[in-house]
Specification:
Elements lengths: L5 E10 L2 E10 L2 E3 L4 H21 L22 H12 L5 H18 L2 H12 L4 H17 L7 E2 L2 E2 L7 H4 L7 H5 L15 H9 L15 H7 L6 E3 H16 L5 E5 L3
Antiparallel strand pairs: 1-2, 1-7, 3-6, 4-5
Bound molecules: iron/sulfur cluster.
Length: 269
């Protein structure tokens, strides 16, 4: 894009009582949401860094290290926009790598499907609708652990490291722990201590990119990205960069009012 196709605006937030002003450059014209995912990735990095600084100030240390991919065997939730971003990322890979990655996706989905996990997950979500929040959450944790115990690695995991580190989903960025790495490798509910991130951009991206076309799938999972992109050819709407950012912060700050957190002082302008 040329310079005149971009616009720069400022967002003022208050995070845990501290004023934060962000300057953001976004496309001036209409774009699909997946085109501006790098902006949300940078935002996520910023919030995660703040979370890390907070735990380090308490004397704790992050136990995640390069070469530890224990958490990369979990069901990773992604946004609808990330479904297309990941599918495009894989399509852009040169052969034979593209074929290798696609084969890993297919094998992973086949293993999870053969174990009946997708059905178990849907049933869990359905039961949870009529349960108190805490009971439903506990039940979901148990089903997530069942997925983990199948040992299905993320198709992008190589030598226990992420092969798409710079492009990894927002949910992956938000997952850092202070508990011992061995707890992630053999997780038991309550033994993995995640870094508290004041705002989780993955949730807001998922909310604003939802078109309703994939609602029947409940939570969208990374392992299903290629299958979903093929089943639902991209017909996502286009909006200007400013409109997308306004929607994002409106959702993010609304969600954050439930806890300590992020209060908007001023929108993108
Ligand atoms: S995308 Fe990367 S960080 Fe995320 S689960 Fe896969 S390998 Fe792990």
């Amino acid at each position: 894009m040329d310079n005149d196709e971009w616009t720069t605006g400022r967002v003022k937030l208050r995070i845990n009582g501290q004023p934060v002003e962000l300057e953001m450059t976004v496309p001036a014209g209409p774009v699909k949401l997946q085109r501006i995912i790098p902006i949300f990735q940078q935002l996520t990095n910023m919030f995660v860094d703040a979370g890390v600084a907070a735990v380090e100030a308490e004397g704790k240390a992050i136990s995640c290290t390069a070469g530890c991919g224990a958490c990369c065997r979990q069901p990773v939730p992604i946004a609808e926009a990330e479904v297309y971003q990941i599918a495009e990322l894989v399509e852009a890979m040169p052969e034979p790598r593209r074929g290798v990655i696609k084969a890993r996706f297919a094998a992973g989905v086949a293993q999870v499907r053969a174990a009946g996990w997708f059905d178990a997950f849907e049933a869990c979500i359905e039961r949870g609708r009529s349960m108190p929040y805490d009971a439903a959450a506990l039940q979901q944790i148990e089903v997530v652990l069942q997925y983990f115990r199948q040992g299905v690695p993320c198709p992008f995991l190589e030598d226990e490291s992420c092969s798409i580190h710079a492009s990894r989903p927002l949910a992956c960025r938000e997952y850092l722990v202070t508990s011992p790495a061995r707890n992630c490798a053999t997780p038991i509910a309550g033994t993995v201590h995640k870094v508290d991130v004041v705002m989780r951009p993955s949730r807001s991206l998922a909310a604003i990119s939802r078109t309703g076309r994939m609602n029947g799938h409940g939570l969208l999972l990374l392992i299903l990205a290629l299958e979903l992109a093929e089943a639902y050819p991209d017909r996502a709407p286009e909006k200007t960069g400013s409109e997308w950012m306004m929607e994002f912060f409106r959702h993010a700050t609304g969600a954050a009012t439930e806890g300590p957190g992020v209060v908007p002082e001023q929108g993108l302008r």
